[in-house]
Amino acid sequence: MILLSTEHTIENEIQTLHQLFDAGLTHFHIRKPNYTLQETKAYLEKIDTYFHPFCVVYYPELVNEYDLKGIHQTSQNRNSIVKNTKSLSTSTHSITEFNELDSAYHYAFLSPVFPSISKVNYQNPEILHQIAQRTNFNTQLIALGGISEKNISEVLLYFNSVALLGAIWLHPNPIEQWKKCQNIVLSYSV
């Protein structure tokens, strides 16, 4: 199970993030699309170095410097695949796009699976119907968009795992919500 950061900094974000790591978070995408390289470094500097190996960023040059988990490439950067990295991921918005990915990608988000919790009017009701057309089994398929404890069980029937954003960061108790979702995911991995 993957957690994405919010696009913009929120109150007590780093403190909450550390609590999430303590609650079992092992895969965190620093998704701050407007952050420069220096701003991303500053964000990483706030995270305890013990948790750096759980973090994924957009800047390849930071992976070794901070001992990070890997790199996430946007669809616009996909033409310059960074090989021999710890973990390489990208985002897709249709099963056709996912099927065409290079095998260098360890996993890819497919979104939005359900109406987004954090983005207004961001949805694609066709995605779940397209899953039967999956032909790429070299890359892990990760559901993103509108994922919450209410639909994780359904999603895990078709996807390798899930990525959360709004279900955690917009919840009044993000730590308890993370634990609920994590327990559901873990019940499918046994």
TrEMBL record:
Note one Pfam family from the annotation. Answer: TMP-TENI
Tell me the Gene3D superfamilies matching this sequence: Aldolase class I (3.20.20.70)
GO BP annotations of the record are: thiamine biosynthetic process
Membrane keyword on record: no
InterPro entries noted in UniProt: Aldolase_TIM, ThiamineP_synth_sf, ThiamineP_synth_TenI
Thiamine phosphate synthase/TenI domain boundaries = 8-163
Task: Name a GO molecular-function annotation.
Answer: thiamine-phosphate diphosphorylase activity
Q: Alphabetically list the UniProt keywords.
A: Thiamine biosynthesis
PANTHER family linked: THIAMINE-PHOSPHATE PYROPHOSPHORYLASE (PTHR20857), THIAMINE-PHOSPHATE SYNTHASE (PTHR20857:SF15)
The name this protein carries in UniProt is Thiamine-phosphate diphosphorylase
